[in-house]
Design goal:
Blueprint: E1 2-13, E2 16-28, E3 33-37, H1 44-51, E4 59-64, E5 67-68, H2 74-84, E6 85-88, H3 100-110, H4 117-126, H5 142-154, E7 160-164, H6 172-189, E8 192-196, H7 200-203, E9 208-213, E10 216-217
Parallel strand pairs: 3-8, 3-9, 6-7, 7-8
Antiparallel strand pairs: 1-2, 1-4, 4-5, 9-10
Length: 219
């Protein structure tokens, strides 16, 4: 489970300090699928990055499975992400010179981690890309690229997947398909999925939603 308590985060922009989060408390249970909503600049992505160990809070704690990751060293945070967290980004972040298969396994290779080729192929089949395993990103549609990104986020079997505005560049039909796929993965494998989004197409289909407004949770 994830528990954020009193989380504060600000950023410097020249001489100005911008408060992104101002004392956020949030709990997410294991196996839950939820969305953090809010307009651009409300703090959604900041909170997601803190939960995923991509950044550190200025104050407060973020407990993942009972441990406060805000106290981790950089090396320990890297190890935490490698085991516990799968990230899916808005712009896919695929490597143009690699095919689908290699884009999925490249994080494992970079970390020197072993992977089972048969399981990778099963994952590619699960996201509907078996016929495209040797295609490069420029040969894929936007929805197919996002499916590659989903498979890449799951290749190391993380218990938590964080998805940041992943439907922003997709048409309605494709966005609906992507969310349907993630619901299946949540249901079948118990992966905890947290979205940061203001896309109503996502929000209509997710039972639990919390709203951020100016860095605090709306009541």
């Amino acid at each position: 489970m994830i528990r954020a308590r009193g989380v504060v985060k600000s950023y410097k922009m020249g001489a100005v300090s911008i408060e992104a989060l101002r004392g956020v408390d949030l709990g997410v249970d294991k196996g839950e699928m939820m969305a953090i909503t809010g307009v651009s600049g409300s703090g959604k992505s900041t909170l997601l990055n803190l939960v995923g160990g991509m950044d550190r809070p200025d104050a407060g704690s973020i407990e993942v499975d009972g441990e406060n990751i805000a106290r981790y060293s950089n090396a320990r945070l890297t190890a935490f992400r490698a085991v516990k967290i799968g990230f899916i980004f808005q712009n896919f972040n695929l490597i143009s010179v690699l095919n689908v298969y290699d884009n999925i396994v490249v994080p494992m290779k970079l970390k020197g981690q072993r992977y089972d080729k048969a399981k990778v192929l099963e994952l590619i089949e699960r996201v509907g890309l078996t016929r495209f395993a040797k295609h490069r990103p420029e040969e894929l549609s936007g929805g197919q690229r996002q499916r590659v990104a989903i498979a890449r986020s799951l290749v190391h079997n993380p218990p938590y997947v964080l998805a940041d505005e992943i439907t922003a560049n997709l048409d309605t039909s494709t966005a609906t398909s992507i969310i349907g796929l993630l619901k299946e993965l949540n249901r079948d494998f118990g992966v905890t999925i947290i979205f940061a989004s203001h896309d109503q197409r996502i929000l209509d289909g997710i039972e639990r939603k919390v709203a951020l407004e100016d860095g605090v949770l709306a009541r």
